[in-house]
Protein 1
Amino acid sequence: MSDDATTTPGAPAAPAVPQMRAISQDAAGGPEVLKVITTDRPVPGPTEILVRVHAAGVNPTDWKTRTNGAFMTGAEPPFTLGFDVSGVVEATGLGVTLFAPGDRVFGMPRFPHPAGAYAEYVTGPARHFAHLPASLDHIQGAAVPLAALTARQALVDTADVQPGQRVLIHAAAGGVGHLAVQIAKSLGAYVIGTASEPKHAFLRDLGADELVDYTQQDFAETVQDVDVVLNTIGGDYWARSLRTLRPGGTLVSILPPDDSVPTPRAEAAGVRAQFLLVEPDRAGLRAIADLMDSGRLRAAVDAVIPLEEAAKAHTLGETGRTTGKIVLTAAP
């Protein structure tokens, strides 16, 4: 027998590595770069769980990452997109005590590092997940983690919204915006939203107190004495939003400021302006789950699309005309 022999004649073959389907891209580009592949199923490391994905949320961060690598740290093509996930625990890694196989969970693992949620299985730190209430399906579970955590971390952790305060939410009918409206209402705020008129009835149903049709009115001229602004748009909305705030108010943006809004300008206006990048947050997920379980928070889902049609989901999302969220389904 040669020295480099690795098997013994008649010995059983090594077990095959379990496979799964995933969406991968080899290069930056349009939706057409998203392809279905078959790849090895991941294995949970210490403190991690393996989740059988039933649904994965689609977010603007996904198509921005597909195009130019934004919002995903340390990833080089080929890679699999997706941060929002809802599914069932398949296995647990060493030291995990929070979950057991069979548990229904949802979360936003690893953000802004690659999570690979556009797949049939995903791994992530156990504390980047929370139990999904029995009252919710996986579509709702996948629709909320990134968007609802963004809204909650902006309104609760950063701005410390209090009952009776006036909160202005831009793009109020969008993925983050419509959840922010509901979270602000749960905090006892008076909520003002910017949205086109056809979306006003939807937002009133969510609890918005006052609405501005940005296609017909300049919110900076009509909205005054606001305590908190949540800017989900960026651009000149930074500077224009400063004009709506009362002294001591807070502007939180989920998009970086441009050079027109340096910190001194906000300070000169007597307000605080901050850029927020969402983080994995188990406590926040549990608070979101409680709101959803009690009926005080629900995700509007614009479209549910099979995993293998991820390119179609991105094409739809990039129109900017969806109301609420887009979700991919991966369950058998």
Protein 2
Amino acid sequence: MMRSAAIFLLAGILLMTVPVRAETVTIATGEFPPWTTDTARHGGFINRVVSAAFARKGIDAKFSYMPWKRAEVETKVGRYDASSFWFASQALENDFVPSQPISHHQEVFFHLKSKPFPHWQTLSDLGGVKFGATLGYTYTAEFWELAKTGQLNVEVAARDLLNLKKVAVGRIDAFPMDEISGWMLLSNAKFFLPGIKELFATERRPLRTTPAYLLFPAHRPRTAYLAAKFNAGLLELKNDGTYDRFFQEMISGVY
């Protein structure tokens, strides 16, 4: 009897020392510093928030970095549990379930001071401007429709950095981009010579102001469960001040 009790006690001790494997969520993401990036601490502000929100609910977030269009397609077909992160778009909402808003962004037109941006009321007024755009980005439905019909002159490139460089050398006139991200890239000495930033300006009127979301693939078994967990964790981060602290650290250059 004593031997049996000892065996059960030993088994209990061994079970207590075996680590419990955390539940995992796989997330397709891309490069959009300082919001999401594989080259900075915490993966950028958004991915830090996403990771922390899931962690509050005992879920470990695993990020895979790739081109944005690939992230959209592979998440849509269920190779990933979610994609971080996307601006509002009716086209995306047809295939994905959005989280509660993670952040809010202002997309503005970057241009050279030497090429003042024309006065405009609607995008159709800007037919004389040669725009850059980044492959896989949503912008607005109107922007892409006018580009498709030739009413806007839009040249697509693979990355934001390429578009800003094209503005700098005069190959395009303007490029719509998140305001914080654009100025951050222009300030990066790895990409631009000192003083280049001072040649740029932004159009006061934005292309749009939009919330951003974590997207979950529609019709996947875990989507409702993971979305609920994330939204609950995100609310906790906002309520206890963690979200605001993360944001201020981004503004101060932590990412």
